[in-house]
Structures
1.
Amino acid sequence: MSRPRLLALSVVGLLAAACTTDPTIFSTGGDAGLDGAVDAAGGPVELVVTPTTVTVTEGQTQTLMVSLSARPSDALLVTLATSDDTKLGLAPTALLFSTTDWATPQGVALTGKADADVSDEAVTVTLRSTMIAADVTVEVTVDDDDGLALALTPLALDITEGATGTVRGHLTAQPTADVTVAVASTNLLAATVTTSMLTFTSANWAIDQTVTINGVQDANTVTDTAMITFTSPDLTAAAVTVQVSDNDVLGITTSSSALTVNEGGTGTFTVALTQVPPGPVMVTVVPGAGTIATGAPGTLSFTTTTWNTPQTVTVTGVTDDDVADGATTINLAATGLAPRSVAVTVNDDDVQALVPAPTTLAVTEGASAPLGVRLAFRPAGDVVVTASSLATGIATVTPASLTFSPSNYATPQALTVA
């Protein structure tokens, strides 16, 4: 009677980066004093490691393959350790080779760990066995992916003539030396700043520093704009858009001209009038084209006594079936007044994944069984998925690849396990 076997299948996206380093064999030199580290003919058993130099990006993983050059006389345990486990993770940290699987490469995942600085790290991985005389080392470079930049909040500001607003900023990573940032206004007739220079050090780089922006009072009835620029020889230039609403005419003002929400999440901004109206004013709240976000309530009512009392508009990001961010506007309008709009960005929180069905599979020797695979969310373009068996001596899987498109991503495609 045939006996069911447990089978692990690996279905992965075609996303791996190739390593081109040739395999390297590390020998014990035939030390006869190490029992079990010789083959049946009395020759040395050697570690086969590839690659011997690895570069891995923070947050990413590369694979180290380890096997033996010859059959050992007994089971052989290889342990792995990193010179700095705060920079590099290993999984697993031990490999066991038997007299039957000694030639089958075993994989070790090398994962770069994220840190707050912008420097690459050099880490050594040591492989050793009590049955092999010489330790084996693999040099690993952890490529830092932290770009040094200035993070500003908000990126757009709406203030009234004679009023003030603030912008906060900090660095995205720890600098190796002090970073000075010059702050200036591109239109001094519309807005000025109270701080002309910010200094960030290795100690305060993550702490927000505040710039106060003054809306300049003028005699006209025009809404003015200015860019508050942040420049440094060490950073990419950044800017905040400032809209200075003229307070000499009746208009609609908002607490923000831009808003970011997550899919299924909410955010708010407030709406008020700039002047006392001659009578009641009704402001309509209308989302832009598409189904990216909604705004509620649909209307706001202001009177001669409540004209400057902010009323809240709640923006909700609409959940969709793709993994792309969305952008739209919430438009505000009232009879006789200039329309206003708030830009809305909806961050997509969907993470693409493969969905197998079933998740476990039992196959009788000599028989086959189907396995369905689909994508969890709509991709932006075609996605090629490769399929392979982790133990081809036990079972095989066909076909070797599946292609999903934005139109068929949710339809399971069949793999045959035999």
2.
Amino acid sequence: MRVPPVLFIAWAHVTNRVRQTFIGVIGVATGVGFTIMISGVMEGSQRQFVGTLVDAMPHITITDERLSVALQPAEQIYGAAQRSNFAATERRPGISNSNLVLGSLRDWLPGAITPSVKVTAMVYSGNARFGVTITGIDPRQEETVSKLAKQIVAGELYGLSRGSNAVLIGQALATKIGARVGGTVTITPGTGTPISASVAGIYRSGVREVDERRIYSLMRTAQMLAGQPDLVNEMRIQLNDAFAAPEVASRVQGQIGYKAIPWQEANADLLSSFKVQEKITNVIMAAMMLASTFAIYSIISTITNEKRNDIAIMKSLGMKEYFVQTIFIIEAAMIAIVGIPVGWLLGYLLCIGMTHIKYSNPITEGTLAIAIYYSPIHYIVVALITLACCLLSAFLPARKASRVHPVDIIRGAA
């Protein structure tokens, strides 16, 4: 089979300058490999952090903060009915008609929902004391909205039902106050009588703020601390799709009139830091791609300078400018086509190597391995960008070489 002249000449140029070609391939492979590694590390760390947040907290939290006045039966039936000049009354904290609210949401909610009681208090153990949030739960329903049962490292979830005023405390808090399973702690609410509670279990959520500040108890224990036997001031929702939380929360708010907070809003400050991280990552990857581009530019420029006589001969024989340009662009493409697969392999090996690096996580107070997210999209996108950069970097010297008049080249050589 006859090889097209442009391919034959381009191949001859690339293979005759093995050292330069090798340097170009290494430059392309290095840019591709490190870009893939950085992409995998950044996305892997983000996914690991978000996964920890999603496991440690409900996807949506409904509070007893009323956003609008509840519709009366007349307004629900007759759209023209209106109310005005309401007398201000002191509202009892809590979600009104909580059982009806739960029933109306369960009819359509794509997930599970459970009521709870939230009370702020102080916990004492010996001379140590800390401010905490007591969350009153139903152990049977809790398993449908959280992974608390799997997060317990000592004791068990259903131990709440067996002890007197039993509680579950976070491992970080237990370490600070010296609490252990079977021991007792004193809990004092903001307004009310202190109680002595037995420690039924110790959990570790993976988020230090949660482990230090949240204590779980039965709902009746939390209601007793609040001084309101039937209080329900919080509902927690676990969705089938955690990332649908904002849309579902908006619908919940519109239906019941209470504030619904998706987990993204509750952690907006932390999640916003990811945007800064992504910008920094993009700058680093752009710098690596730029390095590969300069490597190709340098090589093609060198080849065009060395092959000036060849260019003069080809143009004197009637070769068009676009034909000369095509030769050098094909040379850049050849270097990229070889360098990109080598870069893929290098990137994959770098990712594997990064997983063996351990670091101390200040959020979880534990030692973790660097998380890597492997995605074919990373490889494809980096390859396409690299190929485009290589072709673009070859265009300028190729264009310059093709515009040189053969007489000028021959006269200069003479």
3.
Amino acid sequence: MPVNTRREIAIRDFRPLSARQRVAAAPLVRLAPGSGPTILQRVTKHFVIIFALWSRSPVMPHRKIIHIDMDAFYASVEQRDRPELRGRPIAVGHDGPRGVVATASYEARPFGVHSAVSSALARRLCPDLIFVPPRFDVYKAVSLQIRGILRDYTELVEPLSLDEAFLDVSHASSATLVAREIKGRILADTGLTASAGISVNKMLAKIASDYRKPDGLFTIPPGQIEPFVAGLPVERFFGIGEVTAAKMHRLGIRTGADLRMWDEMELVRHFGKAGHSYYGYARGIDDREVTPDRIRKSLGAETTFSQDTDDRETLLSELAGVRGEVWSRLMRHEFRGRTVVLKLKFGDFRQITRSRTLAAPVDCVETLCRVSEELLSAVDFGGRKVRLIGLTVGNSPEACAESVQLRFDFTESDR
């Protein structure tokens, strides 16, 4: 039997083990000729344990995970409350040179206006764009109303932000029917539409919720996971951004089927530790549990450049883009933090962090802009070029109340 065939059988048949355990066990099938007796004994012992579990346990049922994602949430609330805005391109955010779009209505999106875009760029892309100041007290009230609906169906609700959440409804006979009912109740109670994705894990459910937006409902059943994932463009997978996708394209990886052909260690060699996740995602595997009441300790974003650079103006421009994404996420998650952390990774893959802790949480984009630019200006590159820049806001009052505050390491480190 060919090695690859044996490996796939190992993954598919060891159902009593978790998906992550099956993936971890699969490479052991490929025992190289001439392997020493110690390795052989360890592999034999490992498979005796796996076979015992497999032969004595019933097949584990699939989980049923729903991802609910409100459609253009902030903008939809504004259009609901202000009929004159309906059907018109609007952006929730502050107009001005340092403003950032929090959410854009679907009428604005064909122009290229979306969350995290600077207000100045949004205005150039769509001259008729209407800026609406955010009303976070209203959005939070509506969000709590929606969470109340979700909790009528399961206690396992994990909010990701004001406008999206995961639900574990493994107890239900049909997760698709539950999702359809939830969508109907949200519309009836709030006047807003939501999109729902249903599958066996978080990754697939989140992909599914975005598949037929707005007001979408899409299910990826267990029997369709393999062909569905195989046909997905790599850009649709979680954590694969524009730069990573471009690198994959250069390697001939354009779809899930292409990604599945790669060995896990080869993916790690090319993409670092994220390669482990990509290997699992290509097989539709994601073992993360739905975790209610998860406390977020920090929130950030980063970008990797197509070419390393030491040009300060270029770095300031890239930092502005990252900062816009961070500020958009801060608003969506209603997150507050006192510590701003700048991260730089150089061409030799060494990285540094610089941070500043403020007297009060960051409460406006101007503060985030000033602090992040001051942190960058103080960095001595030492003749090196930068390949990645990131920005994080942490040290939130809520997280500090639950755990010991972490200290930030200011020294260089290898990754």
